[in-house]
Amino acid sequence: MEICYSCGASEIYEDGLCKKCFVKRNPLLLQIKPQKIVFCRLCGEIKYRMKTFHLPKDNIKFLSELKKSIKANKNIYESVKLEFNLDNLIQNQVVDVVASSKDIVQKQVIVFIISNSLCQICRKKGSEFYSVLIQLRGFDEETINSTLKNYNQYIFKIEKEKKGANLFFIDSKKAEKYIALFIEYHKSKNAPINIKTSKKNDGIDQSGKKRYKTTVLLQRKV
Ligand SMILES: [Zn+2]
Ligand SMILES: [Zn+2]
Question: Is the entire prediction scored with pTM above 0.90?
Answer without folding.
Answer: no
